Amino acid sequence: QVQLVESGGGLVEAGDSLRLSCLASGRSFDSTALGWFRQAPGKEREFVAAISRSGGDFRYADSVKGRFTVSRDNAKNTVYLQMNSLKPEDTAIYYCAARLAPWYSYTADTSPAKYDYWGQGTQVTVSS
Fold first, then answer.
1. Among 78, 64, 104, which Cα is nearest to 23's?
2. What is the pLDDT of residue 1?
3. What distance in Å separates the CA atoms of residue 16 and residue 85, rounded to the nearest whole number?
4. CB atoms < 10 A from the CB of 113, how many?
């Protein structure tokens, strides 16, 4: 089992930055591949960013490329999502997700179906 707790959301203005954190507990953090997803009101949950177990592979949604950066700190059991140049359309609940990945896994996963563990979400609201 892996428990995930997100933090760092809030209300900001367009153009501002936020850093989301997701603290993991339970199974070995360095055996997990991690992802960030978001869900806006009335919309489906969508992929935002992902990082592989090794930390060497990254994937981003086209809508956030160049603005968002995903990273992980295995010593702190934490994955981060640095969000810069925020836009009103980034408003959503942001979820952290994890899956236990085999030692030979080197890719980041963009599909929510690949993830077994989810946090409760943190609200990000960007005003125009």
1. 78
2. 83
3. 6
4. 7
Which pLDDT score, from 0 to 100, does residue 105 have? Answer: 80
Token pair of 11 as six digits = 């209300």
User: For tokens 């160049």, what's the residue?
Assistant: 66
| C-alpha 113 chain-centroid distance | 15
Q: Quick one: which of 16, 6, 90 has its CA closest to 48? A: 90
Q: DSSP code of 25? A: E
Give burial (CB, 10 Å; 0-12/13-18/19+) of 92. Answer: buried
pLDDT tens per residue, range 1-45: 899 999 999 999 999 999 999 999 987 888 899 999 999 999 999
